[in-house]
Design goal:
Layout: E1 2-9, E2 14-23, E3 26-34, E4 39-50, E5 57-60, H1 62-67, E6 73-84, E7 88-100, H2 104-108, E8 110-116, E9 132-135, E10 144-150, E11 164-176, E12 183-197, E13 203-217, H3 222-225, E14 227-238
Antiparallel strand pairs: 1-4, 2-3, 4-6, 5-14, 6-11, 7-10, 7-14, 8-9, 8-11, 12-13
């Protein structure tokens, strides 16, 4: 998300007047005027990106969810902000949208969300205590309150490049099926009863039992794999001393 604040100013004439003293008891008055066309003054740029996109949302597609049925999937979410001028920038995650044609897979997938240093790789080191741990379907009830990503700093320079502050944050999401998910076993037993002769020639009734077992693993249906998870972020610009509503010590 990129915002540029602009102010349009129309100036029809600039006039300067002065009184000059020509001599004792004598005054000479002069004036000058000039016209300029309408102009625009740019007051600052605010940028907030999610994985490099200015659309403040990230969708985990159905292909990734389907892949999680065989291997653990790790998704990186990188947030970056830039604010020119003296204002600060916050971000929040008000909601996560979980959609599924059949809820079987999202109800079974185990998800975690944790924050990480932007300089580290998700999954490369042991994660911190998760911000969320539960089913993928349960992500619909998870949110992040406003957090600051760019500080509000006073600047004296008139160079826009020197009045721009930046910040970043990283979140890691993991998706995996629980161990032995979908595994099953079946055993068939057959019993037969019949007559048999003993060694001494007598007839007796005997019972014969046989067992056969097999094992397999059930796969989620195509409808269950037709699912996605979307993280919907927002960016909030604040003046120095302000804190967004919902953040710790919120003032606006």
């Amino acid at each position: 998300m990129r915002r540029t604040a602009k102010i349009g100013i129309t100036v029809s004439a600039l006039a300067v007047a002065a009184v000059a003293v020509a001599g004792p008891g004598t005054f000479a008055e002069w004036s000058s005027a000039a016209s300029v066309k309408e102009t625009t003054i740019t007051t600052g740029i605010q940028t907030f990106t999610v994985n490099g996109s200015e659309t403040p949302a990230l969708t985990i597609p159905s292909a990734t969810l389907a892949a999680a049925t065989s291997d653990k999937q790790t998704i990186t979410i990188d947030l970056k902000g830039e604010q020119q001028g003296h204002r600060g920038l916050y971000y929040a995650l008000p909601n996560i949208a979980v959609t599924a044609q059949d809820a079987g897979l999202v109800n079974a997938l185990q998800a975690t969300v944790y924050s990480a240093d932007p300089k580290t790789t998700c999954g490369a080191t042991a994660p911190k205590t998760p911000l969320y741990a539960g089913t993928a379907a349960g992500l619909a009830g998870f949110s992040i309150k406003p957090l600051q990503i760019v500080n509000s700093s006073p600047h004296t320079s008139t160079d826009p490049k020197k009045t721009s502050d930046t910040g970043s944050a990283r979140y890691c999401v993991t998706l995996a099926l629980p161990a032995h998910y979908g595994e099953y076993s079946n055993t068939a037993t057959a019993t037969a009863t019949g007559d048999a002769k003993t060694q001494d020639g007598k007839t007796t009734t005997v019972q014969v039992t046989a067992h056969d077992s097999w094992y397999g693993q059930a796969e989620p249906s195509a409808a269950a794999k037709n699912a996605s998870i979307t993280f919907n972020f927002t960016a909030i610009s604040v003046r120095p001393g302000e804190t967004p509503s919902g953040a710790a010590g919120g003032t606006k």
